[in-house]
Amino acid sequence: MAKDMTLLWGSGSPPCWRVQIALEEKNLQGYNQKLLSFEKGEHKSKEVMDINPRGQLPAFKHKTYVLNESCAACIYLESQFKSQGNQLIPDCPAEQALMYQRTFESLTFTQKMADVIYYTWKVPEAERHDSAVKRNRETLSAELKLWEGYLQASGSFLAGKNFSLADVIVYPSIAYVFRFGLCEERYPKLAAYYNSLKSRPSIKTTWPRTWLETQGSDMLKDL
Amino acid sequence: MAKDMTLLWGSGSPPCWRVQIALEEKNLQGYNQKLLSFEKGEHKSKEVMDINPRGQLPAFKHKTYVLNESCAACIYLESQFKSQGNQLIPDCPAEQALMYQRTFESLTFTQKMADVIYYTWKVPEAERHDSAVKRNRETLSAELKLWEGYLQASGSFLAGKNFSLADVIVYPSIAYVFRFGLCEERYPKLAAYYNSLKSRPSIKTTWPRTWLETQGSDMLKDL
Q1: Pfam families from the xrefs (chains A, B) (predicted)?
Q2: What span, in angstroms and rounded, lies between the C-alpha atoms of B158 and B200?
Q3: Chain B residues close to A169, C-beta within 8 Å
Q4: pLDDT tens, A168-198?
Q5: Which of A104, A124, A131 minimises the CB distance to B72?
Q6: Which of A16, A64, A151, B52 yields a CA-CA distance of 20 to 30 A from B188?
């Protein structure tokens, strides 16, 4: 029982979901957790700010060690609980290299996704341009095609024959683009990856409850 | 001799510099390397694209394993050459947690730095706004104050009593903001950190040659 861990999280947030998946993969259940609402601004509450002064979720702590950056938390958990649950960092140098490469490359993917999905939230009305929206969408589409190609080459998982930290970190972003209406027919490898991992216990157990209860958006349907 | 490694790099680029520092720290000298020019567009050359299809530098390879993401390359090198050169990932869980947290947090810092320094390069003229420039600068200033506070708390290094991967990854970005004119008096802890590590062998040896030969910018002097 991971009673010495605390996770404050928001439903549907890829960074929060990553940490939840990693905890499941490492058999670290029973941690203290609290679901907070972005809509109600609870990510700016004192409870969050005490752990994460950036006022973002996740806010995560193991003992007194703070790991709010979701990728940092995932790598740390694997390092500290290496022999527990599923091994997430491959020993094979070739797979390990690919795993780290895809993990860090995914931050570019996430950034490009955010530039499209959060555009009106991030850019004040007076600074918005149709040309920027169009360019951001084209950039995201090109990025998704790269990942489509990666999966074409790698098969079931992103870095080798086993589920790894790269999958823990990238899967929530891929699920997110489908939640926002990405066309499964146009990105068949991404869709196959998305659908095949839905039933993996660590992912199924942590699937965002809000996604089960509400309809997604169709923002990316023409991408 | 690291003859099974190849690094294509550009002078003054923080991501390239990180990999160079990591290689020095791990005593991996003698690798194949080639200095390319961003100005001449050599980062889009076939030689680079063959290793890094994103057309970015660094392009880095160990044997046949490609690690173009600079942070991925640094973590991989530490993992594969753990007992060689300086240990960059602390064993102590508290220091390790802080090291990973700062390492990934630095990607936010780098992004905010890029939003200011590359604004006119990234944003087409018709989409530029003084309000965006002002906001980006304020955001970067707030970010730098966070790091000033981190150094106030941690002392000589970013994550504990020894130089670590967090320093390898963050130092080039901190040097970059000073290269762009950040005021040493206004950010005394960052300045002390910047100056004290200049003489560290891994950093001194890899100091961007272009920086020794040309004047920096004063873009950030009022930040």
Answers
A1: GST_C_3, GST_N_2
A2: 15
A3: none
A4: 999 999 999 999 999 999 999 999 999 999 9
A5: A104
A6: A64
